Amino acid sequence: MPAPARRRRPAGILIALTAALLGAAILWHAQVPDLLGLALPFEAILPWLGAPIALLLLAALFRRAWLGILMSLAAVAVWSIVFTPRVLPLEPVSGSGPAAITVLSQNLHGVDGSPEKSARAAIGQQADIVAFEEVDAAARSTLDEVLGNVYPHAVRVGTVSLWSRFPLSNLEPLDLGLGWKRALRVTAETPSGPVRVYAVHAASARIGAHDERDRMLDELRQEIQQDGASRIIAMGDFNAGTDDRAFSPLLDLLREPRDSGWGFGFTWPAEFPVVRLDHVLERGFDPRSMRTVQLGDSDHLAVVATLRPSV
Predict the structure, then answer these.
(1) Which of 281, 260, 123, 95 is nearest to 195 (CA)?
(2) pLDDT > 80? residue 117
């Protein structure tokens, strides 16, 4: 009988060490050196670490590896503390107040994303402000034709286009260090007062090749940090998951509402979303709803947020 116990012990230690590493990675992922650019995909799948942690716990229970059970439970606790608040459905603030506005953002994926279908579906979402990213020249006339009757105000910078029911003023194209402009800042004159709106199409991010994206997100953070507007909405394709070390500093300045349903609200790829690359961030609002929807044939889901200005 002692021999089997000794054979089980190395497996229990391995389970315990693996669970400890996964728990530590969740807590301190931003401090881990970006070796070979692997931090990018790792931080994108960080919420999915709950699956291997659960498997480790089951394996430890099966083998009666008490150290493995203890460390796996600790890793479960870490995952729960970090991610459970993001999985819970949004609880809208009750009571009356200024009129809410609804915004919609989607990476259109150019003509491959069927712009006419996406535009008509966007109208069906009853959004007040619509932002499309990755709008190529072939898609622009179609979008203008479909959206123009509903949204009389429109601005365009590079691959980013924005339509609004409300008058728009003070358009500022932003290159955010990219060298060419694919972001914008504009003021929407809503019935509840002016709202500063940022629409962003961040540079692509790949393993070992995300410096341009990192620079854009950092310069966007600086722009927002210097923006004295009391009400801000920043939306678009940030090409970064919520836990990405280049994106998370924005969450010190703006808030991302939780999804109205259970889950993380992943947006990419549309067929089976595993990461949230598309975001709506806000300051000065009480979120009423937040959801992801399929529009057209894009490889990104759209994000739709209804926000009521804070009193």
Answers:
(1) 281
(2) yes
